[in-house]
Write the structure tokens for this entry.
Amino acid sequence: MPKRKTKPWQYASTITIAVALACMLVPQTVAAAEKMPSPEDMWAVIQAQQRQIADLIKRLDITDGKIEATEHKVEVTEQKVAETEEKVEAAGAMIEETHAQNASGGDGWWQRTSLGGYGEMHYNGGNADEIDFHRFVLYVGHEFNDRIRLKSEIELEHSIAGEGKNGEVELEQAFVEFDINDQNTTRAGLFLIPVGIMNETHEPPTFYGVERNPVEKNIIPTTWWEGGVSWATRFGSGFSVDLAAHSGLDVPDTGGNAYKIRSGRKKVSKAPAKDLAYTGRVKWSGMPGVEVAVTGQYQGDITQGNTDTEAFFIEAHTNIQRGPFGLRALYARWDLNGPEPKMLGRDEQYGWYVEPSYRTEVPGGEAGIFVRYNEYDMAAGGMGDSKYTETSFGINYWPHPDVVLKFDYQFQNAPQGEAGDDRANLGVGFQF
């Protein structure tokens, strides 16, 4: 075993013992001068001294052990402090590197950017008798932080755009969204109007039929976007409220499309802003698979200063999917106040439809069947016959939840003097 190193205080201990012995021997020496003790007395004195010395040595050893243990704890603590300082420095360097990368657009920005989109191609029989890649839409989203995000969609319609071509390139959405808190969100930019069943959700796998239903297409008119600001508040029990102030419609006041709602969309392309529109929606979705909503809109002049035609709009719908059974029902109506639209009978325009459906699993995916009755009139205020009715039935097949194959057949009754368009339609659609 290695020789134990003598500590400085152990030297002091030896001196203390010597002093103690001297103190005990001095009186005995004096006493010896007076009277010499017997050998038995001397032996008893020596044994007592030995016990005192052993007790002192034991106490010194215990004290020495405690001091050594304390020194070891101090060394361990100093080592842990040094390790902690190294970890803090490493974390600080990592944070600084991440900030530098984000500021320079380096690695990391893509983690908050997402891509998506949808598209659909149709074959329409009847009067059309054509194949058309109706639309391809590319979605780009980006989260600036946990409460500010960008959402945008670019759409190519009818496959090719340009002078003399059938198609168009359109910006369908481009807005910045801000989360005020957990219940309130605001938007600024170009966004879809909160109205109807299909205006905000119209990807091909989400609805029945090859074409979008004629009521939401002609009366609402889907797809309808404007530029402005909006505010959304979510309450408990599934209630929510949306409010928006935005650019309004600009319907023509002459020609064959005079005061037709769909003809008034300017798609925020140098859209006149003399008369803004104001939209509000109340929605309830407190039960899984059930949505009920009512939307209203007001615009002071739907012709943007040309004829001073005040416009009121109301829409109500329910959208239910409970198990395999589905039901959509919607009613929409415009009232235009002014002599010009009244002369054409277009001071009242309305439409409604009801669509029950059934969806179930089949080999290789899911299939759903539907039937839909549509009725709409874009000149209901007139004396003549201007009402369209259309009954459609068909099937959707989803080999994947985001891919759909469609077939439907429609029977159309047109106003007197016009030919109805009975036809078969085929379609393929996708979303990602």
Observations:
- The CA atoms of residues 229 and 262 lie 22 Å apart.
- The mean pLDDT is 86.
- The first helix runs from residue 8 to 34.
- The domain at 113-431 is CATH 2.40.160.10 (Porin).
